[in-house]
């Protein structure tokens, strides 16, 4: 991926929010299941 690519979409209060890549790299691991609730600040994926 490159800077600005959409990494994931998070739903908050029925609004879908696109989260862009902060830097170039490769997603090595996704740490949460699709649709699972997450806490603020929780790691969602590992990027190298």
UniProtKB/TrEMBL annotation:
Organism expressing this protein natively: Rubellimicrobium thermophilum DSM 16684
One of the Pfam families matching this protein, by short name: Biotin_lipoyl
Keywords annotated in UniProt: Biotin
PANTHER family (UniProt xref): OXALOACETATE DECARBOXYLASE ALPHA CHAIN
Segments forming domain Lipoyl-binding: 1-48
Record Gene3D superfamilies: 2.40.50.100
Stored InterPro entries: Biotin_BS, Biotin_Carboxyl_Carrier/Decarb, Biotin_lipoyl, Single_hybrid_motif
Name listed for the protein in its UniProt record: Biotin carboxyl carrier protein
């Amino acid at each position: 991926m490159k800077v600005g690519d959409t990494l994931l979409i998070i739903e908050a209060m029925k609004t879908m929010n696109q989260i862009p890549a902060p830097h170039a790299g490769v997603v090595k691991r996704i740490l949460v299941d699709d649709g699972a609730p997450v806490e603020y600040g929780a790691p969602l994926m590992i990027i190298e």
